[in-house]
């Protein structure tokens, strides 16, 4: 059968498998800052599980590691950069 006679079938896109965010050899602990920093937003918030495609157990371990690193001062609680402050032009002016 010719392809032109099958208009109801969509062309398939090639399947691209995404690498898991945590490899089996990675240790999830508070000292592994390169791993922890991938799961924190620019403002310093812990990213959601569905955003980074983690399992429930991995998310729990990441959350514990981030909280331990914050308590031991390896990681700040908040990232007070310019991205969190509102620009001067958007502030309400009082007269």
TrEMBL record:
Name of the encoding gene: rps18
Compositionally biased residues, Basic residues: 1-20
Record InterPro entries: Ribosomal_bS18, Ribosomal_bS18_sf
GO molecular function annotations of the record: small ribosomal subunit rRNA binding; structural constituent of ribosome
Segments of this protein annotated with the region Disordered: 1-22
Stated family: Belongs to the bacterial ribosomal protein bS18 family.
GO CC annotation: chloroplast; mitochondrial small ribosomal subunit
GO biological process: translation
Locations listed in the record: Plastid, Chloroplast
Quaternary context: Part of the 30S ribosomal subunit.
Protein name stated in the entry: Small ribosomal subunit protein bS18c
């Amino acid at each position: 059968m010719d392809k032109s006679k099958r208009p109801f079938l969509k062309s398939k896109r090639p399947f691209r498998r995404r690498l898991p965010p945590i490899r089996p050899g990675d240790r999830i602990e508070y000292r592994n800052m390169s791993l922890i920093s991938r799961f924190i937003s620019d403002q310093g918030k812990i990213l959601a599980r569905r955003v980074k495609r983690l399992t429930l157990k991995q998310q729990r371990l990441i959350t514990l590691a981030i909280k331990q690193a914050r308590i031991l001062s390896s990681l700040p609680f908040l990232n007070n950069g310019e991205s969190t402050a509102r620009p001067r032009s958007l502030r309400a002016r009082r007269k």
